[in-house]
Amino acid sequence: MPTIKKNNTQYTDFELRASYCSKGPLSLNNIIKEDMVAVASILYIKCNLCGKINKVKTSSEHRSGQRGRLTFNINSRAVLGSLQAGIGNTHLNNLFATMNVPTMNNRTFKS
């Protein structure tokens, strides 16, 4: 599976195979910006054919409760895993820092 390294983050194109602009498929070679939200990312990818910038999320999202804000599934799973392991936000962030993964703020941890 092809991988691309951008901003010290390595991506595979397995999630982007189904990501299309209206003109054609997107390529990981055309990432122009990345917003990191703890473990999840939002990639801004330029289409080769039309030049449009497309926003692609690396995780699906869900709402906490009926009116809660959207939360990335991967971030919720990281929180659940840390709670199952008996650690909180500080220890999870220490683990993330050791792995060179962006840390999670307290608000994200609690949502």
Average pLDDT over all residues: 82
Give the number of helices. 3
Strand content: 25-35%
Series of H and E elements: EEEEEEEEEHHH
Number of structural domains: 1
Secondary structure tally: strands:
9
> What is the terminal separation in angstroms?
33 Å
Low-confidence stretches: 13-18
With strands numbered from the N-terminus, the spatial order across the biggest sheet is 5-6-7
In angstroms, what is the radius of gyration?
16 Å
Mass-distribution shape:
elongated
Helix content: 10-25%
Largest sheet: 3 strands, antiparallel
Structural class: alpha+beta
Describe what this molecule looks like in 3D.
- InterPro entries: Mutator_transp_dom.
- It comes from Paramuricea clavata (Red gorgonian).
- Residues 24-110 form the Mutator-like transposase domain.
- This is Mutator-like transposase domain-containing protein.
- There is one protein chain.
- The chain is elongated and about 50 Å long.
- Helix content is 24%, strand content 33%.
- The protein has three helices and nine strands.
- Strands 5-6-7 form a three-stranded antiparallel beta sheet. Strands 1-2 form a two-stranded antiparallel sheet.
- Mean pLDDT is 82; it is low at 13-18.
- The chain has helices spanning 73-84, 89-98, 106-110, and strands spanning 3-6, 9-12, 20-21, 24-25, 31-37, 40-46, 53-57, 61-63, 70-72.
